[in-house]
Design brief:
- This protein has four helices and four strands; from the N terminus they run ααββαββα.
- It is mainly alpha-helical and 200 residues long.
- It has three domains: 51 residues; 48 residues, SH3 type barrels, CATH 2.30.30; 49 residues, no CATH class.
- Strands 1-2 form a two-stranded antiparallel sheet. The chain has a two-stranded antiparallel ribbon with strand order 3-4.
- A hairpin with a 6-residue loop joins β3 and β4.
- This is Zinc-ribbon domain-containing protein.
Length: 200
Protein backbone atom coordinates (compact mmCIF):
# COMPACT_ATOMS: atom_id res chain seq x y z
CA UNK A 1 0.00 0.00 0.00
CA UNK A 2 2.72 2.48 0.97
CA UNK A 3 4.63 1.36 -2.07
CA UNK A 4 1.69 2.27 -4.34
CA UNK A 5 1.33 5.67 -2.66
CA UNK A 6 5.06 6.31 -3.17
CA UNK A 7 4.80 5.40 -6.85
CA UNK A 8 1.78 7.70 -7.23
CA UNK A 9 3.68 10.67 -5.77
CA UNK A 10 6.68 9.85 -7.93
CA UNK A 11 4.58 9.74 -11.08
CA UNK A 12 2.83 12.96 -10.10
CA UNK A 13 6.18 14.70 -9.47
CA UNK A 14 7.50 13.61 -12.84
CA UNK A 15 4.36 14.91 -14.55
CA UNK A 16 4.70 18.28 -12.76
CA UNK A 17 8.37 18.47 -13.70
CA UNK A 18 7.63 17.59 -17.31
CA UNK A 19 4.79 20.11 -17.39
CA UNK A 20 7.10 22.84 -16.03
CA UNK A 21 9.73 21.97 -18.63
CA UNK A 22 7.10 22.10 -21.38
CA UNK A 23 5.88 25.48 -20.08
CA UNK A 24 9.44 26.89 -20.12
CA UNK A 25 10.14 25.51 -23.58
CA UNK A 26 6.80 26.83 -24.84
CA UNK A 27 7.60 30.31 -23.55
CA UNK A 28 11.07 30.19 -25.10
CA UNK A 29 9.66 29.05 -28.44
CA UNK A 30 6.93 31.72 -28.36
CA UNK A 31 9.55 34.38 -27.57
CA UNK A 32 11.67 33.10 -30.46
CA UNK A 33 8.67 33.25 -32.81
CA UNK A 34 7.84 36.83 -31.74
CA UNK A 35 11.47 37.89 -32.16
CA UNK A 36 11.62 36.29 -35.62
CA UNK A 37 8.33 37.96 -36.63
CA UNK A 38 9.78 41.32 -35.59
CA UNK A 39 12.92 40.71 -37.67
CA UNK A 40 10.81 39.66 -40.68
CA UNK A 41 8.75 42.83 -40.27
CA UNK A 42 11.91 44.96 -40.11
CA UNK A 43 13.32 43.22 -43.19
CA UNK A 44 10.09 43.86 -45.14
CA UNK A 45 10.08 47.48 -43.96
CA UNK A 46 13.71 47.92 -45.02
CA UNK A 47 13.01 46.33 -48.40
CA UNK A 48 9.91 48.48 -48.87
CA UNK A 49 11.80 51.62 -47.86
CA UNK A 50 14.61 50.88 -50.32
CA UNK A 51 12.10 50.06 -53.07
CA UNK A 52 10.16 53.26 -52.38
CA UNK A 53 13.24 55.50 -52.41
CA UNK A 54 14.73 53.89 -55.52
CA UNK A 55 11.48 54.21 -57.52
CA UNK A 56 10.40 57.74 -56.55
CA UNK A 57 11.39 59.09 -59.97
CA UNK A 58 9.83 56.19 -61.88
CA UNK A 59 6.87 54.74 -59.94
CA UNK A 60 5.66 51.37 -61.28
CA UNK A 61 2.00 51.79 -62.36
CA UNK A 62 0.79 48.98 -60.10
CA UNK A 63 2.25 50.77 -57.04
CA UNK A 64 1.01 54.31 -57.79
CA UNK A 65 -1.70 54.20 -55.13
CA UNK A 66 0.67 52.89 -52.45
CA UNK A 67 3.28 55.55 -53.32
CA UNK A 68 0.65 58.32 -53.16
CA UNK A 69 -0.57 57.03 -49.80
CA UNK A 70 2.98 57.03 -48.38
CA UNK A 71 3.62 60.56 -49.72
CA UNK A 72 0.41 61.81 -48.07
CA UNK A 73 1.37 60.20 -44.75
CA UNK A 74 4.86 61.76 -44.89
CA UNK A 75 3.33 65.18 -45.58
CA UNK A 76 0.80 64.70 -42.78
CA UNK A 77 3.61 63.89 -40.35
CA UNK A 78 5.54 67.00 -41.46
CA UNK A 79 2.42 69.12 -40.84
CA UNK A 80 1.99 67.64 -37.36
CA UNK A 81 5.66 68.28 -36.53
CA UNK A 82 5.31 71.89 -37.71
CA UNK A 83 2.22 72.38 -35.52
CA UNK A 84 4.08 70.89 -32.55
CA UNK A 85 7.07 73.16 -33.18
CA UNK A 86 4.81 76.22 -33.29
CA UNK A 87 3.09 75.10 -30.10
CA UNK A 88 6.45 74.71 -28.33
CA UNK A 89 8.03 77.75 -30.06
CA UNK A 90 10.58 75.37 -31.58
CA UNK A 91 12.43 76.02 -34.85
CA UNK A 92 13.33 73.61 -37.62
CA UNK A 93 16.95 73.44 -38.76
CA UNK A 94 17.20 74.49 -42.43
CA UNK A 95 20.21 72.21 -42.93
CA UNK A 96 19.27 68.87 -41.31
CA UNK A 97 15.58 69.33 -40.44
CA UNK A 98 16.01 68.68 -36.71
CA UNK A 99 13.65 70.36 -34.25
CA UNK A 100 15.24 72.73 -31.72
CA UNK A 101 13.95 74.61 -28.67
CA UNK A 102 13.24 78.30 -29.26
CA UNK A 103 15.99 79.49 -26.90
CA UNK A 104 18.69 77.56 -28.82
CA UNK A 105 20.71 79.76 -31.21
CA UNK A 106 22.32 76.80 -32.97
CA UNK A 107 20.99 73.40 -34.06
CA UNK A 108 21.80 70.73 -31.49
CA UNK A 109 22.16 68.15 -34.26
CA UNK A 110 24.42 69.79 -36.86
CA UNK A 111 25.43 73.18 -35.37
CA UNK A 112 23.69 75.29 -38.03
CA UNK A 113 22.85 78.84 -36.78
CA UNK A 114 19.21 79.61 -36.08
CA UNK A 115 17.71 81.38 -39.10
CA UNK A 116 16.37 84.90 -38.59
CA UNK A 117 12.83 85.25 -39.98
CA UNK A 118 12.61 87.58 -42.99
CA UNK A 119 10.00 89.78 -41.33
CA UNK A 120 12.23 90.11 -38.25
CA UNK A 121 15.25 90.97 -40.41
CA UNK A 122 13.24 93.61 -42.25
CA UNK A 123 12.05 95.01 -38.91
CA UNK A 124 15.63 95.17 -37.61
CA UNK A 125 16.82 96.88 -40.79
CA UNK A 126 14.02 99.44 -40.57
CA UNK A 127 14.85 100.12 -36.91
CA UNK A 128 18.55 100.51 -37.74
CA UNK A 129 17.76 102.87 -40.61
CA UNK A 130 15.41 104.92 -38.43
CA UNK A 131 18.05 105.05 -35.68
CA UNK A 132 20.70 106.12 -38.19
CA UNK A 133 18.41 108.83 -39.54
CA UNK A 134 17.82 110.11 -35.99
CA UNK A 135 21.55 110.22 -35.31
CA UNK A 136 22.36 112.12 -38.52
CA UNK A 137 22.52 115.91 -38.11
CA UNK A 138 20.04 117.85 -40.20
CA UNK A 139 22.80 119.98 -41.74
CA UNK A 140 25.75 118.33 -43.54
CA UNK A 141 29.06 118.71 -41.73
CA UNK A 142 31.12 118.42 -44.93
CA UNK A 143 30.90 117.73 -48.65
CA UNK A 144 32.54 115.04 -50.74
CA UNK A 145 35.77 116.54 -52.19
CA UNK A 146 35.24 114.49 -55.35
CA UNK A 147 31.56 115.06 -56.26
CA UNK A 148 30.26 117.57 -53.72
CA UNK A 149 27.59 115.33 -52.16
CA UNK A 150 26.57 116.48 -48.64
CA UNK A 151 28.02 114.25 -45.90
CA UNK A 152 26.78 113.97 -42.34
CA UNK A 153 29.79 112.37 -40.67
CA UNK A 154 30.74 108.77 -39.99
CA UNK A 155 30.88 107.76 -43.66
CA UNK A 156 34.06 106.02 -44.82
CA UNK A 157 33.09 106.35 -48.49
CA UNK A 158 30.87 108.77 -50.37
CA UNK A 159 27.49 107.16 -50.97
CA UNK A 160 27.20 108.89 -54.34
CA UNK A 161 30.56 108.39 -56.07
CA UNK A 162 32.37 105.92 -53.76
CA UNK A 163 35.23 108.31 -52.98
CA UNK A 164 37.45 107.11 -50.10
CA UNK A 165 36.83 109.68 -47.36
CA UNK A 166 38.95 107.74 -44.88
CA UNK A 167 42.02 108.41 -47.02
CA UNK A 168 41.58 112.16 -46.59
CA UNK A 169 40.95 111.71 -42.87
CA UNK A 170 44.19 109.69 -42.56
CA UNK A 171 46.15 112.41 -44.39
CA UNK A 172 44.71 115.10 -42.10
CA UNK A 173 45.52 113.00 -39.03
CA UNK A 174 49.12 112.52 -40.24
CA UNK A 175 49.56 116.25 -40.85
CA UNK A 176 48.13 117.06 -37.43
CA UNK A 177 50.49 114.53 -35.81
CA UNK A 178 53.50 116.00 -37.66
CA UNK A 179 52.57 119.53 -36.56
CA UNK A 180 52.17 118.35 -32.97
CA UNK A 181 55.58 116.61 -33.13
CA UNK A 182 57.18 119.85 -34.37
CA UNK A 183 55.62 121.82 -31.52
CA UNK A 184 56.92 119.29 -28.99
CA UNK A 185 60.42 119.57 -30.44
CA UNK A 186 60.29 123.36 -30.10
CA UNK A 187 59.07 123.20 -26.51
CA UNK A 188 61.67 120.63 -25.45
CA UNK A 189 64.49 122.90 -26.68
CA UNK A 190 63.24 125.92 -24.84
CA UNK A 191 61.33 127.29 -27.77
CA UNK A 192 64.00 126.64 -30.42
CA UNK A 193 63.68 123.94 -33.07
CA UNK A 194 66.02 120.97 -32.95
CA UNK A 195 69.49 121.61 -34.35
CA UNK A 196 69.50 125.33 -33.42
CA UNK A 197 70.94 127.02 -30.35
CA UNK A 198 69.08 129.36 -28.11
CA UNK A 199 70.68 132.79 -28.61
CA UNK A 200 69.94 134.46 -25.33
Amino acid sequence: MFENIGNTFKNYGEKVKKSAQNFTETNQLNAGIRDTDKKIEQAFASLGNEFYNSHLENVPPEYTEAFNNIAQLIQHKADLVEQLNKLNNAWKCPRCGASNASQMSFCGNCGCPKPVPTSQMEGQEQQEQAHAEEEKPKQPIMFCPNCGTPLYGGEAFCGNCGYNLKKDADVEATETTNEASGDEAVNSNGGAPEGTENNK
